[in-house]
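Re: that backbone. Tokens:
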């Protein structure tokens, strides 16, 4: 009996001692998307947000402040129209709210920028059709094929089945790259060694319909807006998609490299004219100080920004959220 009690007491002591010991080291918590976005926008923030404090330090919205702010916005690729809009908004809010502190002025600019970007925050709705056909275009080097791989991962994570169409038949590396993404995401890739890109995508849509696939991501070859024969070819791809499915493509995404700055506006306008762009994917924001171009897009050619990319990782492409983006620019 006493032995039993002793064992019980010993067990209790061990339990107490164990409770007193520090918990075993666990795997470090992964940073949240907001934290990763803030880190990814470090270059733009250093160019933009880092200089605001000195500009706002005088604590009043006067001509000198507005002139310095105009210079800063323009050098951050915000563009003339968006810059003038933000300056006018700041003057209006300063007069209305009697702003007289650096913090108040910065909050007013942050609010004005958020209001400007908010209409671009339109999450992609993919439940209207099955398969939901997404045509993806962009200039050479914008990160188009990589973005397709990341989109496949994102949609797969939402419990949706995905099929990739290797419509870039000109560049063998593009097909190989897409095949690698397909294997990584465990999704099927429809491709051909050569031939008409429209035919590849047509076959992919037929395969997706036969297999009950939710989403078709159709890659296209990179091209410059000035290459008129290639712009006509991509318009043909769109027409062939409509033959395969009269309601398609259900989304036409243009991939933009943030490093292009103001040139991105011309890309949006040119591709929209050829293939009716319905949404944007802005990539490489982590490698650029030109994140302000999103404000220029909002003012000059407003298209929904469906996704933004801030790194090379497979999870570094997420839906655009205006509040998160603006906070990442202003937070020190």
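Recovered sequence:
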């Amino acid at each position: 009996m006493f032995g039993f009690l002793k064992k019980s007491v010993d067990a209790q002591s061990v339990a107490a001692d164990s409770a007193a010991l520090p918990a075993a080291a666990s795997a470090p918590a992964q940073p949240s998307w907001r934290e990763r976005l803030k880190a990814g926008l470090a270059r733009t923030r250093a160019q933009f947000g880092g200089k605001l404090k000195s500009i706002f330090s005088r604590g009043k919205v006067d001509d000198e402040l507005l002139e310095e702010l105009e210079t800063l916005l323009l050098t951050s690729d915000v563009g003339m129209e968006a810059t003038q809009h933000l300056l006018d908004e700041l003057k209006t809010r300063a007069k209305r709210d009697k702003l007289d502190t650096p913090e108040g002025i910065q909050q007013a600019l942050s609010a004005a920028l958020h209001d400007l970007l908010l209409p671009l925050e339109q999450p992609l709705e993919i439940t209207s059709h099955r398969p939901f056909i997404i045509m993806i275009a962009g200039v050479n080097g914008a990160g188009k094929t990589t973005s397709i791989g990341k989109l496949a991962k994102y949609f797969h994570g939402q419990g949706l089945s995905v099929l990739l169409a290797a419509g870039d038949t000109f560049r063998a590396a593009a097909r190989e790259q897409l095949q690698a993404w397909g294997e990584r995401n465990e999704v099927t890739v429809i491709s051909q060694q050569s031939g008409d890109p429209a035919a590849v995508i047509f076959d992919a849509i037929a395969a997706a319909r036969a297999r009950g696939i939710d989403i078709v991501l159709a890659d296209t070859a990179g091209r410059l807006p000035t290459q008129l024969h290639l712009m006509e070819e991509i318009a043909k791809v769109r027409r062939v998609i409509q033959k395969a499915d009269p309601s398609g493509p259900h989304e036409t995404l243009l991939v933009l490299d943030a490093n292009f700055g103001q040139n991105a506006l011309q890309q949006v306008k040119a591709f929209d004219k050829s293939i009716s762009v319905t949404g944007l994917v802005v990539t490489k924001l982590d490698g650029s100080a030109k994140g302000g171009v999103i404000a220029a897009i909002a003012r000059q050619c407003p298209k929904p920004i469906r996704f933004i990319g801030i790194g090379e990782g497979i999870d570094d492409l997420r839906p655009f959220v205006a509040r998160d983006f603006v906070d990442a620019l202003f937070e020190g």
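DSSP finds 14 helices and eight strands in the chain. The first helix runs from residue 2 to 20.
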